[in-house]
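Q: Given only this backbone (443 positions), what sequence would you predict?
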């Protein structure tokens, strides 16, 4: 294997090799995936011509890019796939699926060789073959009101998940409220400016129309996520629970139990959580983003202002009584706890804090999950920070795997099968590193 040092001395094949030796239980594919997620990837025009048909990047909620759209030009920006798979190559990769986060200056590039798409690091020898996300059979269709179905109900996770961002803005507004790593409001503005059909609120009937087309197309999605920004007052005359529940009720009335229903909203009072569950939603995601109490207040000022950290945590625990053990799955943003000026400066301190959070939650029937932080330049922290070190991400995968095993838990449900070669969750490698034999919490 070659050892190629990148510009900042991190994320290189040499570093991946060293981390693989340090954490032999982590598949090397997962380490490459984390580096692709934290650094981003770029495509040559030739690579984009290799696969005739694939799902293009839909910008399903945030930008998840390392550059604003306006600073990236041409087909390399507009024709990038939603996800890529890595197989074969130097290390004999078992299939691993990676969400595409564009970065023209990443060490990682997808190139074309002899009619195949391949992955290179810093222009070196190809290390894996690259597949592009399969195009769902309903892509290209329009709803009855003329909206592209891909805008209403894109599919991610290699066909597994319908991602229904029904409110594309967040009412946490401005510097004193928006989570400092989040670009949802700025991404909305840049997508509109680029001419993409992108609407603040999706009418319920448009969502149902799109889902009818999904079903008629034979698409094999297994789950849907209802999500969007927080609602601090009202939207369409409804509070947050009422706004999101009306979509779940409409979907479950027309397609009862067809998909696993998941919902991402704030940590809400128990009465609202009961209504969410009664609407047919089976997995609840009250995302806490960062465990450390002081950093939560600094990095998530809107969550602190409207709910407060202690109440947020208490509501997460209370909701286990409604949804059941293992079915409350709050997200945290893996890596943002190392961002300046509020984050930890030492990897071991960040992992210690996050590990305490995992033990606290897992010992109480909650299974957190994480997404790998992408420093989006239109967010406050993304504008001034590099990604977290790869060594942090390797340590986090090891920590998560050990915590799940220590607490005797199966993988969180609603993410497909765990294990390298099986996993489809694309914005973190946590499902890739779990033992396939652990299975998932039954629903
Ligand atoms: S709650 Fe925070 S992370 Fe979620 S959309 Fe609003 S600002 Fe972004």
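A: Predicted residues:
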């Amino acid at each position: 294997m070659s050892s190629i040092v990148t510009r900042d001395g991190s994320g290189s094949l040499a570093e991946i090799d060293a981390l693989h030796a340090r954490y032999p239980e982590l598949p090397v594919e997962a380490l490459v995936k984390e580096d692709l997620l934290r650094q981003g990837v770029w495509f040559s025009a030739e690579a984009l011509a290799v696969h005739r048909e694939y799902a293009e990047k839909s910008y399903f909620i945030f930008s998840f890019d390392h550059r604003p759209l306006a600073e990236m030009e041409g087909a390399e920006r507009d024709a990038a796939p939603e996800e890529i798979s890595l197989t074969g190559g130097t290390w004999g990769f078992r299939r691993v699926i990676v969400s595409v986060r564009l970065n023209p200056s990443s060490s990682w590039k997808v190139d074309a060789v002899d009619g195949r798409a391949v992955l290179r690091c810093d222009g070196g020898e190809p290390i894996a073959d690259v597949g592009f996300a399969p195009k769902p059979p309903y892509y290209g269709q329009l709803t009855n009101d003329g909206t592209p179905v891909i805008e209403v109900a894109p599919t991610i996770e290699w066909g597994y998940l319908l991602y229904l961002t029904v409110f594309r803005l967040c009412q946490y507004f401005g510097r004193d409220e928006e989570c400092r790593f989040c670009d949802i409001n700025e991404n909305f503005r840049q997508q509109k400016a680029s001419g993409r059909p992108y609407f603040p609120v999706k009418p319920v009937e448009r969502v149902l129309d799109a889902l009818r087309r999904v079903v008629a197309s034979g698409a094999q999605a297994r789950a849907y996520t209802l999500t969007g920004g927080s609602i601090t007052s009202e939207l369409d005359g409804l509070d947050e629970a009422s706004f999101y529940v009306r979509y779940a009720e409409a979907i479950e009335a027309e397609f009862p139990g067809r998909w696993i229903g998941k919902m991402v909203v704030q940590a809400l009072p128990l009465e609202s959580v009961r209504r969410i569950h009664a609407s047919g939603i089976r997995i609840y995601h009250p995302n806490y983003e960062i465990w450390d109490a002081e950093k939560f207040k600094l990095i998530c000022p809107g969550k602190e202002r409207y709910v407060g950290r202690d109440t947020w945590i208490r509501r997460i625990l209370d909701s286990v009584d409604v949804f059941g053990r293992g079915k409350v799955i709050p997200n945290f943003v893996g890596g943002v706890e190392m961002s300046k000026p509020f984050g930890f400066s030492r990897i071991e301190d960040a992992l210690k804090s996050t590990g305490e959070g995992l033990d606290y939650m897992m010992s109480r029937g909650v299974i957190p999950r994480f997404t790998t932080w992408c420093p989006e330049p239109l967010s406050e922290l993304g504008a001034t920070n590099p990604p977290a070190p790869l060594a942090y991400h390797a340590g986090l995968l090891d920590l998560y795997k050990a915590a799940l095993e220590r607490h005797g838990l199966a993988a969180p449900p609603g993410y497909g099968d765990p294990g390298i070669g099986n996993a489809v969750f694309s914005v973190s490698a946590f499902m890739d590193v779990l033992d396939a034999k652990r299975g998932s919490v039954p629903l």
